Amino acid sequence: MTHVPQFPGASLVRREAREKVTGTARYAADVVPPGCLYAWPVPATIAAGRVAAVRAVDALAVPGVHTVLTHDNAPTLEEPDDPILSVLQNDRVPHHGWPIALVIAESPEAARTGAGELLVAYERDPHDVTLSEDHPGLYTPEEANGGHPAVRERGDVDKALASSPVQIDATYRMGALHNHPMEPHAATASWSGGHLTVHDSSQGSATVRGSLARVFGLDPDRITVVSEHVGGGFGSKGTTRPQAVLAAMAARHTGRPVTLAFPRGQLAEVVGHRAPTVQRVRLGADLDGTLSAVCHEAVTHTSTVKEFVEQAAVPARVMYASPHSRTAHRVAVLDVPSPSWMRAPGEASGMYALESAMDELASALGLDPVELRLRNEPETEPDSGRPFSSHGLAACLREGAARFGWHDRDPRPAARQEGGWLLGTGVASATYPVLVSRSTASAHAAEDGTYRVEVNATDIGTGARTVLARIAADALGTDPDAVAVAIGSTELPTAPLAGGSSGTASWGWAVHKAASELADRLAAHSGPLPAEGLTATADTEQETAAESPYARHAFGAHFAETAVDAVTGEVRVRRLLGVYAAGRILNAATARSQFTGGMVMGIGMALTEGSGIDPAFGDFTAKDLASYHVPVCADTADIRAHWIEEDDRHLNPMGSKGIGEIGIVGTAAAIGNAVRHATGARLRELPLTPDRLLPYLL
Questions:
Q1: pTM for the complete prediction?
Q2: Do 396 and 555 meet the contact criterion of CB atoms below 8 Å apart?
Q3: Helix H segments across 436-502?
Q4: Which pLDDT tens digit goes with each residue over 300-353?
Q5: Would you say 387 and 380 are in contact if contact means Cβ atoms under 8 Å apart?
Q6: Active-site residue list
Q7: What angle do CA 217, 223, 225 make, to 5 degrees?
């Protein structure tokens, strides 16, 4: 029986809310088995070279210190699936902050004190940590992150640009950005009878189990990984990180459970970062604003440990119609920490450049920026030619313009002032792909009329438990309160990680399938249920393996009003509106929270967040929350999220698209465009801090 979800009723309050606000939710570092030891990682203080010697005698003399692990005495690992996990295996130092030792003690304080007493001698190699658009080591990789071809070209871009009556040629820069989830990366590991149990702060415990099985040479059945509550991840917990491996190594070496939580100041160099980019965008258009050519070329860095290429030019393959297009990526291998996923990787940085260039084109044409985008709406996905499963960008732009009062604005730059504040408004589009992966799930009906759904999903603060209960309840025709949800352990049915805005689509599809099968079995059953109840299982391998003939994307439009202090250069976001086309919204309360959270991150990206690398020492200059500034409540006065009703039949049984990341994608560009409208100054480097604005205001 095919069940068409309706998702009626009011928004559900997230299920784990009480546990979180009362402190009863247990995170990875909260799990303290009897006899637990504590580990403190010691980072390298050079940018390249090798560890020549480690003197541990003073550290071992600290009361409570149990062991010091280095490459000389740490357990030997098998080759990992990710090179960043090959820790304490040799004397090489590939970048500043690489873990070179682990101090294990009876208390966190003793471990930290012991780490401070460790003496390390190095042999230094020359290093290079500075990215530039003309770096001599730049090369074109085969792929960018996500398996995207590094270069895509249609038509004759150079000829089309040269013949275009209106042209934009601009270069946009962004420094490194850091994830900084509220909960640091932490793990608690213990061994018992050859079985390894790890409580890990991760976006996917199945991924962690696979990595641990490989490095320790174990059958996955001999490993249990639990990620029950996770205090944010934003991509940095989407792959296995060193804390899980280090904690398991220390537990094996000492024969006791070990807890390891990376200090905040070390996170920037061991858990990934959004790589800096230099992006050149060239647009060619006719006098009526019709695009004839789009050229988006991105330069970024990767590490000597592994290749990771931020796919910043990929969104330009989706957004606007043009007969001629070139999108390309180049990368330089530097002595830097390995970059990785940070919320909406590629889309966030790439759309900042593309949507800023579109605003520059609108200014050059004297055309309304909303109208320019509407005039270039593609009929099919430009890069592939596939039809869109749905394409709600125009509806988002029109709805957002109406709600924001866009058409009432004075289009002239630097024309509005209120006291000492210069006022401006800006707009930007957003897109994010619809991603889905294979998942399994089970649904159980008990004889007392209650239900239980099991799936190894991970709730990183997005409300996964809540929305999965709603999906199951809808398929079963029952109240969500009657459905218990078990997630966050490899002992449950296998499921993919929480990442790429794909969690609900992937887990929910399996939950819906299992619950629908259970509903059919219940309908066919007569009499009372057996004491053991009834259970149905589901696997979406067949459904998710089929390649869709449609281009599936979520779209959105961001509108911002900013105020710039004419004396200090301070920027305030007075209003921020996001309107989204993201399929069927399954639970309004948690959806609005995710959209709003993305926009808050976009405010940080635009105005406060940034971290350079010191060329002399090779470390990040802003590596903790005292120096890396994220938005606070005072920065987020009026943020509103809305969505349009979108009935897309080409997605999944719920008709849903991912919503976790699209909120950030266009926000920074909308704010930057609003600052340009307020001041008349076009800045092309983020963040828009007062020191960068002041020269244009004096």
A1: 0.96
A2: yes
A3: 464-476
A4: 999 999 999 999 999 999 999 999 999 999 999 999 999 999 999 999 999 999
A5: yes
A6: 661
A7: 130
